[in-house]
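Much of what follows relies on a compact textual record of a protein's fold. A complete example follows; check for yourself that the lines match position by position.
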Amino acid sequence: MTEQVIKTLTDPSFLIAMLVAIAVFATVFTLLPAFGGNQLKSRMKSVALE
């Protein structure tokens, strides 16, 4: 059982797939705030109306 796990973890195609998955996650995580919209405008409006 552990031999199979070690074999899988050291398989080059598995390592490449894991690195690609981590890179995609990091890219999405980095770009996600850009799609959140601009909340500053609504906050400035609410403060101006107080």
About this structure: The chain has a mean pLDDT of 90. The CA atoms of residues 5 and 11 lie 10 Å apart.
